[in-house]
Amino acid sequence: MPRSENYLKKELYSLIKEDAKIFEFLQSGATDGMWYWDLEQPENEWMSDRFWTELGYDPTKNSHHASEWQDIINQDDLQLALENFQKHCDDPNHPYDQEVRYRHKDGSTVWIRCRGIVIRNSNNQPYRMLGVHSNITALKESEARYRTSLKKIDHAYASVKLALEESERLFEMAPDANLKLDVRGNIIKANQQAEELFACPRNKLEQLSVFSLVPLAKLEKYQQAFRQYFDPCYTGDSLFKKSLAILDYAGRPLTIEVTLNLIPTRAGKIALATIRDISEKEALIQSLQHQLEENQKLHALALSDPLTKIFNKRHFNNMMLEEHNKAVRHQQRLSLILFDIDHFKAVNDNYGHDVGDKVLMQLTLFIKQFVREEDTFARVGGEEFAIIAPFTNTDAALTIAERIVEECAKHPFVINDQQQINITVSVGTASLSSTDKTWSPLFERADKALYQAKRLGRDQVQVSAIF
Ligand SMILES: Nc1nc2c(ncn2[C@@H]2O[C@H](COP(=O)(O)OP(=O)(O)OP(=O)(O)O)[C@@H](O)[C@H]2O)c(=O)[nH]1
């Protein structure tokens, strides 16, 4: 059955005709507003209550004049509505359907979709018009929000595109050689600096594995480090920075500093390798290091005794100054132990100078066991030695000195596995006095005590009386 012939619909038509209450009920319940316009007297137009309530007005106060809505409609939209009205009158197939803006009583804008059909008389002349108003403000607002979001997305997309272009430009223009590497180390992309560094045109570089530029001896180590870096379980620094030894395309060795940066892409992770040639810098560092080591050796030589390898008189003087100052500043004890081999001339005379040298060397090694780390042990004369002993008072210095005398007397020095030589030593000790302005008085007192030990028969310790 065609829709218009449905019996219930027909029944509803007649009900509306017969009973105005039915129509009232329908229009009050409709979500859209209704209007009915007298085209013969266009100032008259009936509008359902909903139209006015949607615009914030009291419907009981309106007088059904077309001027009422024409005053609050946006004037551009009114023009559009009138143009459409004219077209619809001329051609019934032209829909009267437009979205227009009304001014709400509170000043805000209300969007209304306004649709209508012209009703014609028996002469086919339009004489009435029936229409509906739908409030589409919420729809318009969400449309506007959607457009704003779209704009933001467009903007973000444009920024990302720009950033990508910029990073491509930076990749190319960077002062360093740049390579993009895949997970296996294949070179995907190279910039101009890379061409120069590896002395290889870009189209060839981009067909190589980076490992073809690694010296054989380092290959396994570098491959392992590279694999580790790409491993998803890798927990080390995300920025990999190392100095590496590699080769250029012609096989010439280069020292480079490489920074690897992992970049996730749609096709998987790639590494951006930024490479700087530090061959010259490395050579310079090595030469400086060599120089430094040489200087340190020279310095050590300048402060040590060539025969016994312990400190010489010059270093002894420096350390006396330093330890004296420290002891005065921190009010600490300081003692000096001087000892001298007894009758050493006889050793030289009896066994020869070379044997005498060996005795000096062996004695030095022997005495080292009585010297603490904080002490300074030095050869201050031909067969004369000194121990600067910080934090050591007179009694403690005497104990050390007596031990040296006793142990030396007991210890036979065996030279060339055959000659056994017994020696004794004489020792003089002195301790820092509060009246000592410099380290010289301390030295002089220890020297006097040593002289005294010699004078009193050698093989003994004498302690300086002043302390
Ligand atoms: N083999 C050797 N002998 C040295 C060295 N330096 C100094 N002498 C010797 O040490 C001896 C020191 O002799 P003297 O000053 O008379 O003293 P001494 O014979 O030890 O007698 P007293 O010190 O009085 O017990 C000299 O024979 C020097 O030649 C050295 O580097 N090697």
TrEMBL record:
Catalytic activity reported: 2 GTP = 3',3'-c-di-GMP + 2 diphosphate
GO annotation, biological process: cell adhesion involved in single-species biofilm formation; negative regulation of bacterial-type flagellum-dependent cell motility
One Gene Ontology cellular component annotation held by this UniProt entry: plasma membrane
Pfam families: GGDEF, PAS_3, PAS_9
Domain spans labelled GGDEF: 332-466
Ranges for domain PAC: 96-148
Example GO molecular function: diguanylate cyclase activity
Swiss-Prot/TrEMBL cofactor(s): Mg(2+)
Matching Gene3D superfamilies: 3.30.70.270, PAS domain
Enzyme Commission no: 2.7.7.65
NCBIfam families xref list: GGDEF, sensory_box
Entries under PANTHER family matching the protein: DIGUANYLATE CYCLASE DGCM-RELATED, REGULATORY COMPONENTS OF SENSORY TRANSDUCTION SYSTEM
Protein name: diguanylate cyclase
The organism of origin for this protein: Thalassotalea euphylliae
